[in-house]
């Protein structure tokens, strides 16, 4: 997996081209396959990402093992024929506070071992930091820059020590998180500004020197920024256009700083385009894709009802009801997100942008009900006029002979329809309706 793919995208964007990549943060197999099929059609690389706190080095607490995360994506590669040399894996927020109940020395040791394993397993894009105080650090104050640099230097040494055995084109690339500065009002506590980015890039350069690895700064890929919550339960909140433009002007040593923005789910097309045009070359999407998949499945359940209720011998799937039943039987994944009375919670479980239903797709009964839905739609095909009502985008492609009228193909295309927005913003598609 030649990391030059990602470096070339970064340099093209830095040079003024509309070029970027969108990472997918989802372990859903349908979403992963749709992503690979879209990237294959576009001729783009594919980047699967995960946050470190969702990954267990030893598979503890129900978290996924690093090798399982990679193996899961590679299964979809086998189905799609996606080229292995264009497949990349990233992990964000690797930090010693993942071992918050251990001493500083033990937490750093465990984090170093974890990072070494990640490099060995084939993770190409690493987001490492040591800003969070550990057990034994003063609880009432932030860590000094000297302590942060020293700890991060130790972590980078672990990564580079393992990477030393790799060819240069396979060595990991690094991502640095940018945090807001100190001189802000209470209303601005989560806003990152231009100077914050430039200070953070400079600190990374100092950290590489402290680690005895000055050449490593050439493999700084991007600075990662949180622009704010882009949506709540019921509405999309477009990112601040003026802030995007300001951050797009970040420069370090006479070169534009290439950026990544967290959580671009549901952002309007105009915002996605503006981000890439302003050196946000790396976008990320996850819940929007499983939300879109849920929309497609609901639409198909509605088509089932419209075309099959009262038809002799048909046993309806009642998919929407059964999914909600599974969610109510095990409310741990949604209860703290969806407040209000019973009716309001019902609507949220079905339609909230927080998309907490994504945690129930592997439920045994949900899988069984989904299979019945698909079997019914295959055995008793519905009129295309019904599809036009509930899945208009897929109707157009089916009517044009571009898409098979099969349940799995319809769901796959619905997810790809969402992915095409990101593909277009990143310069891989000329027309988002293709």
What this model shows, in words?
Helix 5 links the parallel strand 4 and strand 5. The chain has 434 residues and is an alpha/beta fold. Helix 4 runs parallel beside helix 5. The protein is globular, with a radius of gyration of 23 Å. It has an 8-stranded parallel barrel with strand order 1-2-3-4-5-6-9-10, surrounded by 6 helices. Strands 7-8 form a two-stranded antiparallel ribbon.
Give a brief description.
By secondary structure, the chain is of the alpha/beta class.
Task: Please describe the topology of this protein.
Elements: H1 4-14, E1 21-24, H2 29-42, E2 46-51, H3 66-80, E3 87-94, H4 104-121, E4 125-128, H5 145-163, E5 173-177, H6 194-210, E6 220-225, H7 241-247, E7 251-252, E8 255-256, E9 259-261, H8 269-277, E10 280-285, H9 287-308, H10 319-329, H11 342-351, H12 364-379, H13 384-390, H14 392-399, H15 407-425
Parallel strand pairs: 1-2, 1-10, 2-3, 3-4, 4-5, 5-6, 6-9, 9-10
Antiparallel strand pairs: 7-8
Helix pairs in contact: 2-3, 2-15, 4-5, 5-6, 8-15, 9-12, 9-15, 10-12, 13-14
The major sheet is characterized as: 8 strands, parallel, barrel
Q: What spatial order of strands do you see in the largest sheet?
A: 1-2-3-4-5-6-9-10
- Backbone structural class: alpha/beta
Number of strands: 10
State the order of secondary-structure elements, H for helix, E for strand.
Answer: HEHEHEHEHEHEHEEEHEHHHHHHH
Helical content stands at: 40-55%
Specify Rg, calculated over alpha carbons: 23 Å
Number of helices: 15
> How would you state the average pLDDT, rounded?
90
Unreliable segments (pLDDT under 50, ≥5 consecutive)?
182-188
């Amino acid at each position: 997996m030649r990391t030059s793919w990602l470096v070339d995208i970064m340099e093209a964007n830095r040079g003024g081209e509309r070029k970027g990549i969108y990472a997918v943060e989802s372990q859903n197999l349908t979403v992963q396959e749709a992503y690979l099929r879209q990237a294959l059609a576009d001729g783009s690389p594919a980047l699967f990402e995960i946050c470190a706190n969702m990954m267990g080095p030893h598979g503890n607490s129900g978290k996924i093992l690093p090798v399982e995360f990679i193996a899961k994506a590679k299964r979809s590669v086998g189905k799609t024929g996606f080229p292995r040399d264009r497949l990349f894996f990233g992990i964000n927020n690797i930090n010693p506070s993942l071992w918050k109940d251990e001493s500083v020395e033990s937490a750093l040791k465990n984090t170093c071992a974890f990072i070494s394993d990640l490099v060995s397993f084939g993770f190409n894009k690493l987001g490492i930091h040591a800003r969070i105080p550990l057990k034994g650090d003063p609880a009432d104050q932030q860590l000094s820059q000297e302590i942060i640099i020293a700890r991060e230097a130790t972590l980078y040494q672990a990564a580079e020590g393992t990477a030393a055995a790799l060819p240069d084109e396979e060595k990991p690339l690094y991502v640095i998180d940018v945090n807001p500065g100190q001189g802000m009002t209470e209303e601005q506590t989560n806003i990152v500004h231009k100077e914050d980015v430039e200070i953070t890039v400079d600190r990374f350069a100092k950290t590489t020197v402290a680690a005895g690895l000055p050449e490593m700064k050439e493999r700084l890929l991007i600075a990662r920024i949180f622009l704010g919550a882009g949506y709540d339960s019921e509405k999309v909140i477009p990112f601040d256009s003026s802030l995007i433009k300001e951050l797009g002007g970040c420069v370090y040593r006479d070169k534009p700083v290439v950026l990544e923005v967290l959580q671009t789910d549901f952002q309007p097309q105009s915002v996605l385009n503006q981000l890439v045009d302003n050196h946000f070359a790396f976008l990320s999407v996850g819940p929007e894709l499983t939300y879109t998949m849920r929309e497609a499945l609901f639409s198909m359940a509605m088509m089932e009802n419209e075309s099959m209720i009262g038809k002799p011998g048909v046993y309806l799937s009642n998919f929407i009801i059964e999914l909600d039943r599974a969610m109510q039987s095990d409310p741990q994944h949604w209860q703290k997100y969806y407040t209000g009375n019973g009716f309001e919670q019902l609507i949220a479980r079905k339609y909230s942008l927080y998309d907490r239903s994504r945690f129930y797709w592997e439920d045994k009964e949900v899988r069984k009900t989904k299979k019945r839905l698909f079997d019914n739609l295959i055995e008793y095909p519905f009129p295309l006029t019904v599809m036009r009502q509930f899945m208009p985008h897929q109707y157009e492609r089916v009517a044009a002979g571009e898409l098979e009228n099969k349940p799995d193909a319809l769901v796959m295309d619905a997810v790809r329809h969402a992915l095409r927005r990101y593909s277009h913003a990143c310069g891989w598609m000329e027309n988002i309706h293709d």
